[in-house]
Task: structure prediction
Amino acid sequence: MSIKHIEEYRDSTLARQLSEKIRRLSRRKIRLMEVCGTHTVSIFRSGIRSLLPETISLLSGPGCPVCVTDQAEIDAFIELARQKDVIVTTFGDLMRVPGSASSLQRERAEGRDIRMVYSTMDAVGLAQQNPGRHVVFLGVGFETTAPTIAAAILTAAGLKLENFSVISAHKVVPPALEALMTVDGARIDGFILPGHVSVIIGLKAYRPFFERHRMPCVVAGFEPGDILQAVAMLVEQFETGRPRLENAYPRAVAQEGNLKAQQVLTQVFQIGDACWRGIGRIPDSGLQIRASYAAYDAGRRFALHLPEPKTPRGCACGEILTGQKTPPECALYKKVCTPIDPVGPCMVSSEGTCAAYYRYHYDELEAQS
Result:
C-alpha cells in the first residue's frame, strides 16, 4: 500500500470514528457557524454534512474577505481605477465583484489599467518599474493577509517609493463575532473559529468574547478530520453545558499567536471602525493605515467623491453571511445569479458560500423537479 493510500485510509478511518462519536454525543439540535471561507469550501468538498446527524446544522458565516467587503468599498476601488495615471493591483477574486454600477473586470475591459498580482510585493515591484505612474494595491482580507500588506508598506517606505499606496479595507475577526450575537434571526450555538486567522492572532484574541458570552468556541484546521474534531468538541461542550474556548489546531495555532506578524501589523495599522456587508458598521473591526504612513494610504492620497452605494436588488448575500439564510433561500440563486454571471460577491469568490453551494451542494428538491 502506497503512502498516499495509507494517508487516505487513516483520514477516512478518523472521519468515521469522529462521526460516530458525534452521533453518540448529539441529542439536541445545535447550530454551529464556521467563521472561515476555507472551512466552508472544505466542508462542502469533503461531504462533512453527510456524516453528521440531523441534530447538527452548519452555518456559513462572514469568513470570506471578498464577500464581507462593503459595497461602498467596492465602488471606491472602481473609482480609483478611473483616476489618471493609476495602475490598480488586486488579487483575482475582486475582479468580478459587482459594484453599484460597474466592476473592476468591466473597467479593465474599457481600458483601465487593472492588474492581478499574486502578492503585494508584486505591486511594489510594479511601482518601481513605472515611476511615472501611481500603483494602488487594493487591501482586502483579515488578519491572515494584512501582515503582508503591512510589510509591503514598510518596504515601500524603505525604498522611498512615492508612487505606491494601499487602500485598506482590512477587517479583524473577533469584533465580528460580537456583532453576530446581536443579529436578529441568526441563532448560533457555537463557533468553529478560523485556523489561518488564529495562526496570527492566537487563541487569546478570542478570550474577551468568550468570557462575555460563554459561547462554545473551537479553533479548527482545514482537513476533514480537523473540522470533525472541532464539531465533536463543540457538541460535547453544548450537551454537557460546559462551554469552553478550545484549540483543535495546536500544530499551527499557539496561545499567543505570531508575535512578529502582530508587531508588523501594529507598526503600520491602527484599529478603527469598519463596515461589513450584511452586518453594517462594527466598532473596532477594521485596520486603518497610521498617520505616520499616510504617504502610502490611497484613501488619503485620492479624494474620492462617491454617491450612495446601491446593493444589488434581491441579493441575499447579507443574510447568507450572517447565517440567516442559505443560498437556496435567495430568490436569485441559480436563476439570475450564477458563477458565470454573479450578482453578489458570495457567488464570485472561491470562498463564497453561494459558490460552494453551487459547486458542491446536492439539492434534492431540484433533482425531483
Observations:
- The first helix runs from residue 3 to 25.
- The longest strand covers residues 280-289.
